[in-house]
Amino acid sequence: MVIVGAGMGGLVCALLLAARGIRVRLVEKNTVPGGKLREVTVAGRRVDSGPTVVTMRWVFESIFAAVGADLDDHLRLTRADILARHSWVDGSTLDLHADKQASADAIGSMAGAAEARGYLAFCDRTEEVFRSLNASFMENPSPNPLGLARSAGLGGLLSLTRIKPFTALSTVIASYFRDPRLRQLFGRYATYCGSSPYEAPGPLMLIAHVEQAGVWLVDGGMMQIALALGRLARARGVEITYGSDVEQITVRDGVAAGVRLSSGEVIEAKSVVFNGDPGALFEGLLGDECRTATASWKPGQRSLSAVTWSCVARTSGFDLSRHTVFFGQDYEREFSDILQRLELPADPTVYVCAHDRAAGRHESRLSGEERLLLLVNAPARADDQPLSAAEIASCTTRVSERLARAGLTLSAPPEQMKATTPTEFATLFPGTGGALYGRASHGWAASFQRPGARTSIRGLFLAGGAVHPGPGIPMAALSGRFAAQAVLRDLGSTRSFHTAVTPGGMSTRSATTATTR
After folding, report:
1. What's the pLDDT tens digit per position in 115-134?
2. Domain covering 2-38+56-78+220-297+438-509, topology
């Protein structure tokens, strides 16, 4: 079989199938694996310029265990003590901690005892939401609303109503916090899947619990995850070809039959897994026969894009944590700028990842230059309403002004600040228009409208952050597992990846290693 794309979903799918004895060829257009786990080299130093942390560690532990490996033998992960530092225009700051009570104490000091109590109640509810949806939705290859209700049973229906599926996340958060700063902070979780807190549904509050369960930093950078999976896949027999672009997925008599590379090479296969954005299929970028493989969505339904700056700079003033968020004044206006006016926000929220700083309680200021990633959200309309150079330059100025208001000064020559715009993201990830998270999670039904592993073309499967269960490194990994399960079922395998439960109640997978073809 052939897998197109060595992003997280493709790597996991290839690894799991190879461990079952399936002959797998993985084809990647870039010279390295990773997909959105990308690095940008600045002044000779590698800067993580995609996802910056690992959550849901148990997902990766189960994947490694399923092929007879131990995660700790391949990756060094360090748990962060401080999840993020937050700064507002009024000069206030707040650290969220891995320790829930420490966060409550910090919130109480900033906003009062009532808000601290609201935070603890919010944590209890997010844990309940997570436990309601983990097995029934995230760990389910093909969830649907009716099936979710049936699986819950009479006792579980009450829990499902308590996850607030028909209420906007911003409204749910407002029921726990009166302080507008805290409403901004916890509303930001919607942006983790490229959405607006004013349109995303309440269940996205579960992201708060996922972070409480552990935020992990990867020694050597996030790319090490992809490299480790790639090495393990090769050790299990996967043939990986880098620097080869797939021009077409071939279909014969309604069945996927392989791929044709831009070099002219044709690879015959009984199954094809496409680890890319489904937009590339319904836009015909992989051949006209694949246009109807999965449902399409309109440009207005895309998730957010971003403008990022990968930097090597000297910093002074504000004491950065590993992850720091500088909020703008008017959060609701920020999202209407992006999603309705299709503009870069007039007063952007700026995320800064300081790669060379630990995320611990006792940080020290760095002397000399350090690696930074700066990010602001942007509209994903690079294909029909691209941002101009003047708009990008104006946004760069606004970002500098926002950081300066917080007391942070960045000093770097222009060549040590490399910007990536929605137009460049659209080139890196074809079919997206620059969207980084697939379809936006707007409205209660949006999460059920993401494509699953199967398509309408027999033998053609999907994986990646734009398909179920959604964006993010662990979710993309789960999509790879779902694709592998679907392939095995079609090939007549009698065994799959069986569910086990950890003492914490989180489902994982066993290390069963039966083989099949």
Report:
1. 999 999 999 999 999 998 89
2. FAD/NAD(P)-binding domain (3.50.50)
